[in-house]
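Researcher: Sequence recovery benchmark, item below. Answer with residues only.
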């Protein structure tokens, strides 16, 4: 009969094996949950990431920061501070995004059927109720992107259930698209910019120049694969730096930019804040 101590040694051996291949690991308690914050880290006292919402190291080496505790450092994994965790561990988890991977968690037969019809094949790992489909490439994770489907990648952890079968393929756009929310109708934004030039004529001479600039800005936002919020802000800044002082921008132009940003998951509030921040940066906001 396999003893609990043998199982725990197996967890540690599995963790070390994964870490050797560049996969960040952490111990899991029963119930598939990470270890809770230790007293040192309670209420963010350590200055680290107990809320698990943003990446970054913690000064405490205990495995008590969820996905952010995942590591490939064998000296930490083997350390005395992790010993208690491995003794109590019910399983091994890993941070897919930290290994440049994305896991599509298919929770039931219906979800698996959908994946077989809609996604390119890749490595599959059986789970208790369904399958994990693992792709090369990282993205922002999200839960319930459709019935029975979660995405585990950056800022997320998932259980290690074995190597699976099949050849791992590149993360397809069809998976990335699952996290893109349908945009709500874009709202025109009142642009606090100076009046048009004294001649009343846009210095760019032709509306074609402006239309081309707006189209290029839309494309830049649409093609963003990561750091979407920063890309939206930089794009707004570029548009305003070129067209914000001549009075040629209209509500229709800003609506196009907001619609492109919302299609990438930005909210109207985030769009408005990015636009306002760009105006302030350029000295175009007056009240």
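Model:
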């Amino acid at each position: 009969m396999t003893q609990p101590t043998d199982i725990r040694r197996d967890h540690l051996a599995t963790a070390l094996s994964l870490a050797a291949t560049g996969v960040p690991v952490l111990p899991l308690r029963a119930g598939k949950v990470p270890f809770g914050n230790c007293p040192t880290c309670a209420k963010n006292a350590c200055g680290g990431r107990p809320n698990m919402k943003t990446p970054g190291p913690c000064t405490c080496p205990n495995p008590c920061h969820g996905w952010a505790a995942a590591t490939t450092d064998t000296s930490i994994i083997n350390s005395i501070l992790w010993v208690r965790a491995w003794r109590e561990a019910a399983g091994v988890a890993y941070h897919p995004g930290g290994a440049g991977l994305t896991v599509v968690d298919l929770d039931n037969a219906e979800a698996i059927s959908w994946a077989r019809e809609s996604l390119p094949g890749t490595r599959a790992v059986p789970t208790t109720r369904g399958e994990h489909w693992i792709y090369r490439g990282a993205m922002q994770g999200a839960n319930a992107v459709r019935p029975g489907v979660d995405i585990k990648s950056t800022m997320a952890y998932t259980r290690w259930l074995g190597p699976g079968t099949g050849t791992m393929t590149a993360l397809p756009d069809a998976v990335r698209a699952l996290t893109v929310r349908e945009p709500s109708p874009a709202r025109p934004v009142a642009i606090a910019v100076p009046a048009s030039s004294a001649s009343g004529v846009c210095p760019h001479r032709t509306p074609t120049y402006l239309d081309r600039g707006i189209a290029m800005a839309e494309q830049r936002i649409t093609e963003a694969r990561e750091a979407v919020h920063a890309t939206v802000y930089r794009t707004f800044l570029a548009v305003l730096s070129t067209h914000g002082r001549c009075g040629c921008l209209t509500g229709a132009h800003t609506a196009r930019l907001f619609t492109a940003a919302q299609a990438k998951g930005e909210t109207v509030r985030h769009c408005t804040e990015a636009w306002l921040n760009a105006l302030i940066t350029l000295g175009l906001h007056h009240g």
